[in-house]
C-alpha cells in the first residue's frame, strides 16, 4: 500500500466534505480511490433507503455494478450479510459455493476470486456497506487492508450523514432517497449517451462527470439534461469532450 497516496486520498476526501458537496460525486471518488490505494480491482457502495432496503449507490466498474445489483436481485452475497449482521464479511469465492451459490458463480464469471464487505455504521446503526472485489489472491488477506478499508467506509458514512447526525430519521431517509433517485437518473443518462455516441458505459459516465465539474453543476442535473436532449444537440454538446 502506498502510504503517500493514502494520505493524499484522505486529504482529498476531507477537502470534499464542505457545504453543499455532491454526495454521489464524492462517493464515486471514494470507490475509485479504494481501487487505487488498496490495490483491489473493483469497489462499490450500497446503502439503505427509507424502507431499510439496500440500493446501489456507486460502483468503480461495470463488473462491480452488475455484481452489486446481482446481490440485491438474488438476496444473497457478502454485502447483504454485512448489512444484516453489522460485521465485516471476507471470503475467497472458491469457498463460498454453498454460502452464496448464485453470487459466487456470478463473481467468478466476472474474474474475481475474493470479496470484502465492510459496514457503513452510525452509532451502532448500519446504513449500508462498502464492497471490495479482488481478482488476485492475497490482496484482501493483507492485515493492513482492513482498517484502511473501514476508514474508507467511515468516510462514506460521513459523506451521507454530515451535519445530520442529530436530526430526525425522516430527514436521513429523505437524504438517502434523494441520492438513490439521482443514481437512477444517472444510470439512464449513461445508457442514452453510450447508445447515441456509440461508446462504452464507463466512457459515457466520465464525459458526464467532466461536464459536471467543468460547469460546476450537480451530476444529476447533467444526467437529466442528457436524458431529455435531442440527439443532434447531445452529439454537439459532447463531441468535443471525447
Provide keyphrases for this structure.
242 residues; alpha+beta; Beta-Lactamase; Arc Repressor Mutant, subunit A; five-stranded antiparallel beta sheet; 10 helices; globular
Task: Provide an overview of this structure.
- By secondary structure, the chain is of the alpha+beta class.
- It folds into two domains: 3-166, Beta-Lactamase; 182-239, Arc Repressor Mutant, subunit A.
- 57% of the residues lie in helices and 15% in strands.
- The chain has a five-stranded antiparallel beta sheet with strand order 2-1-5-4-3, with helices on both faces.
- α8 packs across α9 (219-228).
- The longest helix is centred in the C-terminal third of the chain and has 29 residues, at 169-197.
- The two termini are 32 Å apart.
- The model is unreliable at 163-167 (pLDDT under 50).
**CATH homologous superfamily descriptor of the largest domain:** GAF domain
Helical percentage: 55-70%
Rounded mean pLDDT is 81
Q: What would CATH call the architecture of the largest domain?
A: 2-Layer Sandwich
Give the CATH topology of the largest domain: Beta-Lactamase
How large is the share of residues in beta strands? Answer: 5-15%
Strand line-up of the largest beta sheet? 2-1-5-4-3
Number of strands: 5
SSE map:
Blueprint: H1 3-16, H2 23-38, E1 42-48, E2 54-59, H3 62-74, H4 78-85, E3 89-92, H5 101-109, E4 114-122, E5 125-134, H6 145-161, H7 169-197, H8 201-214, H9 219-228, H10 231-239
Antiparallel strand pairs: 1-2, 1-5, 3-4, 4-5
What's this model, at a glance?
By secondary structure, this protein is an alpha+beta fold. The chain has ten helices and five strands. About 2% of the residues have low confidence.
Amino acid at each position: 500500500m502506498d502510504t503517500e497516496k493514502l494520505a493524499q486520498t484522505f486529504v482529498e476526501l476531507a477537502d470534499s466534505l464542505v457545504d453543499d458537496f455532491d454526495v454521489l460525486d464524492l462517493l464515486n471518488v471514494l470507490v475509485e480511490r479504494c481501487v487505487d490505494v488498496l490495490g483491489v480491482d473493483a469497489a462499490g457502495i450500497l446503502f439503505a433507503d427509507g424502507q431499510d432496503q439496500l440500493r446501489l449507490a456507486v460502483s468503480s466498474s461495470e463488473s462491480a455494478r452488475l455484481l452489486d445489483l446481482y446481490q440485491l436481485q438474488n438476496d444473497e452475497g457478502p454485502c447483504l450479510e454485512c448489512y444484516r449482521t453489522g460485521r465485516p464479511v471476507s471470503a475467497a469465492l472458491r469457498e463460498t459455493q454453498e454460502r452464496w451459490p448464485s453470487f459466487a458463480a456470478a463473481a467468478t464469471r466476472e474474474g474475481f476470486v475474493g470479496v470484502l464487505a465492510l459496514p457503513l455504521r452510525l452509532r451502532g446503526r448500519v446504513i449500508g456497506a462498502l464492497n471490495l472485489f479482488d481478482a488476485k489472491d492475497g490482496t484482501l488477506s493483507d492485515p493492513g487492508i482492513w482498517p484502511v478499508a473501514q476508514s474508507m467506509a467511515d468516510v462514506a458514512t460521513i459523506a451521507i450523514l454530515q451535519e445530520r447526525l442529530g436530526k430526525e430519521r425522516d430527514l436521513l431517509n429523505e437524504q438517502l432517497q434523494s441520492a438513490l433517485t439521482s443514481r437512477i437518473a444517472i444510470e439512464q443518462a449513461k445508457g442514452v449517451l453510450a447508445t447515441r455516441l456509440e461508446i462504452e458505459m464507463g466512457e459515457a459516465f466520465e464525459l458526464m462527470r467532466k461536464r459536471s465539474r467543468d460547469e460546476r453543476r450537480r451530476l444529476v442535473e447533467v444526467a437529466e439534461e442528457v436524458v431529455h436532449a435531442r440527439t443532434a444537440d447531445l452529439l454537439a454538446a459532447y463531441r468535443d469532450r471525447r
